[in-house]
Amino acid sequence: MLFDFNVQTTIDKNYDVCIVGTGPAGITLARKLSKSGKKVVLLEAGGLNYSEESQDFYECESIGHEAWPKFTRLRYFGGTSNHWSGRCRPFDSSDFNARKINGLPGWPIRYSAVQPYLEEAMEILDLDTEQGFKPINKNLLKDHFSPDAFSKSPPTRFKGKYLSEIEATKNIDCFYNATATDLTLDASHRTVTHVEISNYKNYKTNISAHKFILCLGGIETPRFMLNCNNQIKAGIGNSNDMVGRCFMEHLNVRMGSFLYRDSETVSGMQFYGDNEFVERNNIGKSNITLGIVKKVKSYGRTKAIKTFFKNLACQMEIEDKVQFISDFKCPGMGNIGTLIEQSPNLDSRITLSHETDDLGLNKTKFEWKISDFDRKTIRKTGLAMAKEFANSGLGNIRLSDFILDENLEIKFGHHAHHMGTTRMSENPKYGVVDKNSKVHELDNLYIAGSSVFSTGGACNPTMPIIQLCLRLANHLKG
Amino acid sequence: MPKPISRRGFITTLSLGTAAPSIFAKNSSYATSLTIPSKSTLEKLKPVDDQFVSVDGWILPTKTLIRGAL
Fold first, then answer.
1. Are A23 and A79 in contact (CB under 8 A)?
2. ipTM for the predicted complex
3. pTM for the whole thing?
């Protein structure tokens, strides 16, 4: 059932589960839990379609590196699935190694905890389960890097695929234009009793449920928890000051450019840092994408330049030489794109700004920072790739100056992958949720989405999010 | 019969002849400009390790450069 909370403002049912957020995490959990017989209320802060009025609630203050949350997340039914690119790659088993980085432990669960949900996650994302994950290029490098295997979702738009199903499901009540503004705890401060929601007219009401799941993403989930500060000043689930810390992105570093010797055979390549390379150097993981200029002639640029100079001596007439230069389209040239794992670090964090939004909630104050561990990852990876490229006879790489000079600041961008701000950990000192995604200090509050990632690997997060949601649904259905 | 001049002799004469005014000048800017290109070139060439060098950011196997010099 579907309700506009601007119109339908009476909610008098008791629900088994209250899910806040209708992105891939919230919708997946609502579908799974309703199928197991739970009465579910699903809340969406925005409407059914994009609106500036809703999107403006993502305005935030940034004092670190700019991450553009307002333009990367979408605040309406279906969430950010409404514009994701669809690239899917599963976590590796090595992503769940418990090695400490920057003094913080890795995942408290092993790969075997999420692997059973891979096939179902692939079906949800309309991936070909028989074909699986395949590389686009051969193994062209000798050491340290392998072709990266991935699969491409259409991409699945959760609104288009699941809105009518949610509307038709009797034991799901979905309210849109309903922003969660507060959580109320019982006297012991161990149990959430209800969530307060508000529409755009500032009309507020409470919803009761046995269990609550926050599916608001890597920025809004910690922001909401920190804003729930009426009963506990530091915010809900924040007694160890971990809510909002360890914000991670996948680092989009412009490593440099390259000349490829034989651009006739491929138009692009993707590589992934081998475990042996990552572990030996004690660095993070990486995806390296080499996109080659598509207007390819019958030769690579390096080869063409050699030929040109050879001919320059005497074989070509002057008009032929001029024609050659004017036709030259730089085949074989390209830029290097990266998706590099950012390590968790306590200084990269989300807190609350003094500014408030139209509903009176403090806005996000963003402080995205990378650590020396990340700088080492970027520089080691870039240099290793450049050497491998030359060693394997593929061509040559020209690295950006900040890769070679440690005195220069590394320039990087984002991938709109917001992770780690309510990270999963065995010990409450190092995270916000336990291995079942339950907030450590509360009995009935759970978190789903990339904010629970202990580490982010070098894979796009949507599919692992779905796997973890399926695992959580399985845990909660009993 | 005029004495034949070698190529080395010709180049030496030419370079000395060109350089002399700036060398003997009290405030020569020309002398400075002569040193800039070679210094700049050296700055762009940096060893990465015993197998690779960086030339203006290009990561090249050292053996390639040696082969080029020979």
1. yes
2. 0.80
3. 0.85
